[in-house]
Amino acid sequence: MKRIFSNREIVLGVTGSIAAYKACELASRLTEYGAKVTPVLTKSACELVGPATFEAVCGRRAITHMFEPLQNPEVEHIAVALKAHLYLIAPATANFIAKAAHGIADDWLTTTLLATRAPILVAPAMNTNMFEHPATQENIQTLRRRGVHFIGPDAGRLACKTVGPGRLIDPARIVEACVPLVSDRRDLDGVRIVMTSGGTHEPIDPVRYIGNRSSGKMGRALAIEALARGASVTVITGPCDVPLPEGALVIPVESAAQMAEAVVNLAQDADVFIGAAAVADYRVENPSDSKRKKTGRKFELSLVENPDVLGLVGAVKRAKQILVGFAAETDDLLANAAAKLKKKQLDLIVANEVNTDVSGFGKDTSKAALIGSDGVVQELPLLTKEEVAERILDRVAALAAKA
CB count, 10 Å around CB of 187? Predict the structure, then answer.
């Protein structure tokens, strides 16, 4: 994500919600990824959090008043508005949303909101009744029609002791929602990508299953990078350890059979299919409807092969459709991956070493090689999975440009 956020100018508007303290974490995450964050606090926000906190995190003076003395000409409100790549309002109160919907410009934040031409992302946080009030809902719809983006709110227990929608969405998810809005690399703009992620669970009985160690981290990294480049992303995901990013259409499944069915239905309309899931090769032939008890004897399972998800897509591959597969290997990495590439009619295969302490399932890093149907082999050094995803989609973008 550092490539995406590096040197991007973000105005972070903080309004007077009790969730204002969470904006400090949001500012920290954005700054860590390389964004240049200008914090703007409304008068009510200053009653809840101190400007000094944001200044320490962002390394920039927090703007709190419309007519405060300027220390730098670039802090002048129109200049900041024109320089911004994104206006992010988190948390956003019902009052702010109402003012924005009606074009009221009575403080620094609402004034510059009218002046900016940057994308605007709003993360509401308020009491459930306030959020569900018809006036608030109408104001949100008004802003949506004007092209303003919204994320959340989440549902849960609120500070006012009620339970329902109104809680500020997790800062990590807000950051992910910023990705396609700030990215300056759009080489997959309009490309429809369908991908699989995670592992699969093959039931033994209602309690137990056969699975694998796939965490879904590679699929998540690919989805984030594809969204940043402008692609439309659908993720068919088995059970995994990490959430998928905002902006992706997520289709949850559990077993290989369910994944195969979803893939057959969705992949035919895709420009690019990426099979990043670790699909179980076998399933239990006759899973039990009730929990099996210990008997003191051997427990033997009869296994049958699962459908070949990647093979199903390759068998009906359209002209100019791009297919990408993965090969998780412990031995003869390049040879086994190249054989799989040819057998399944792929355009690109990602050969992953999975038997080391730093590469493989559940790790944040990966040592991989990219093999194309043209015979070009690109052996990568040890990289983060985000960096591997970038390299994979570089190759996909090059293939798409030729299609």
Answer: 15
Q: Enter the tokens of residue 183.
A: 């990215």
Residue 179 CA to residue 3 CA, distance in Å, equals: 10
The model scores a pTM over 0.90: no
Dihedral-angle region of residue 59 (phi above 0 means left; psi in -120 to 50 means alpha; beta otherwise): left
- Token reading at 295: 């008997």
Q: Are residues 72 and 201 in the same domain?
A: no
Same domain flag for 166 and 210? no
Final residue of a structural domain among 154, 182, 210: 182
pLDDT(75) > 60: no
- By C-alpha distance, which of 90, 175, 94, 75 is closest to 134? 94
Instruction: Report in angstroms the alpha-carbon separations of 172 from 23, 55, 270.
Output: 11, 20, 29
What is the pairing mode between strands 383-384 and 365-366?
A: antiparallel
Instruction: From residue 399, give the alpha-carbon distance in Å to each of 225, 324, 396.
Output: 16, 11, 5
Same domain, 244 and 313: yes
Residues tagged active-site: 160
User: Residue 10's domain is classified under what CATH number?
Assistant: 3.40.50.1950
User: DSSP letters along 297-338, please?
Assistant: S-----EEEPP-HHHHHHHTPPTT-EEEEEEEESSSHHHHHH
What is the structure's pLDDT at 8?
A: 93
187 found inside a domain: no
pLDDT tens digits, 364-375? 788 889 999 988
Domain region containing 154: 2-182
